[in-house]
């Protein structure tokens, strides 16, 4: 099986700012990756490059066997599912009054809103997905009436409707309480096990790295701090470097958890932020 994602010496520069610097990264067949990094470290820029919405200034990129520069990006995008809270904001404005099942079905046509001819098979597939995501009780409800956790699951259902080979979840736990977050993580486990798609998961919180996620990319100021098997990458040293805090990692129930083990001088932090 060819690589799912391959980046060779990728840099992304806008104006005077080097946003990504010399990123070389490969995601192979059975690997499920998490990207971690502080605000502004370049996570979204990497996702924009993977989905072909930003073009790197230097370097080579291929995704699902498509080499950028030689491929039809809209075709590639059909094989990539994308869920982010910015999509949530967009849907809050445009799809408030659409029903949950229509939003899920619209994923097949990559449209916001449902304008195409929907077949019985499409409706059946959407129903199966809603059962799989434990949201069949939402049938008939409009998007504006849902809780954050329910909305997130509807957006995941919409992304899965197109049977993507790669599912990108960009900070899917934003705004969720601890119970809704664990529910979402248990669905991730089900998706990895049963939907046969690769998951690329972006988060700020290492405890969201469930057992099924195998690899981690740590980013700091647009550069890779470490990338590889999670047990090798999630060390006290690498995390402290990535998050610029003295951190300790411990593992519980096959999940990593972080604690902060020294007091920070926050006055320095405030000065650095105001630069
Ligand atoms: N198209 C662009 N033009 C100019 N600057 C950009 C562009 N895209 C990103 N940046 C800048 O690059 C840096 C990295 O941004 P990016 O959104 O990739 O970070 P992030 O790790 O996703 O952050 P967050 O966790 O806050 O979402 C930021 O300083 C951002 O302002």
TrEMBL record:
GO terms for molecular function: ATP binding; ATP hydrolysis activity. Keywords: ATP-binding, Nucleotide-binding, Transport. InterPro entries: ABC_transporter-like_ATP-bd, ABC_transporter-like_CS, Metal_Ion_Import_ABC, P-loop_NTPase. It comes from the Bacteria. Residues 5-246 form the ABC transporter domain. Belongs to the ABC transporter superfamily. This is Iron complex transport system ATP-binding protein. It comes from Paranoxybacillus vitaminiphilus. The lineage of its organism: Bacteria, Bacillati, Bacillota, Bacilli, Bacillales.
